[in-house]
Design brief:
It is a single chain. By secondary structure, the protein is mainly alpha-helical. The protein has four helices and no strands. The N and C termini lie far apart (190 Å).
Length: 188
Amino acid sequence: MSKTPEHKREEESVPLQHAAEHEKPPRARRQSVLLYLVILFAAAFVLMAWSFLMQQRSSNQTIQDLRESVTAMQSAGDIREENAALKEQVADLEAQLEEAQRELAGMQETLDDLTVREEKLIQAMDLFWQIDEAYVRGRYSLCRELIGRMEDLSAGSALKEYLPTESTTDNDRFSPADRYQEIYDAVM
């Protein structure tokens, strides 16, 4: 059996292919593949580190935003509490103001009463001195006329009610009210 040239070539190419498949690559080629793999791993590592840093920065920004919103919420809560306290203070102050206004109105009434009493006292004392002077001078008809004005109830009450009942001098003399009654009893 003779082999045809085609078979021969096939038989010759099989060992060449086998030799090419099992032949060791040259050293330079192995180093370039290794360098390529190192570069790929380094690039992957750099990309992963960059991605981590970006994620970390994004997380820090989110945390900062959350802290700011919590602070703002706490500030809003503080403002609400302060507002409630201020409203309570306003209510207390309004109540105090109303009480002070009531007291002021009462004091104003007392002042008005005292002013009226003072005016009546001045009128009564003026009339009393005129009555006393008329009595001392013996002018009894003028004295009766002045006593009539002292006893007049048209102003609401007689002026004699406003005469002091205590002596303001230390001479053991009558009070104006007592002296008036003495003169009244003598001329009426």
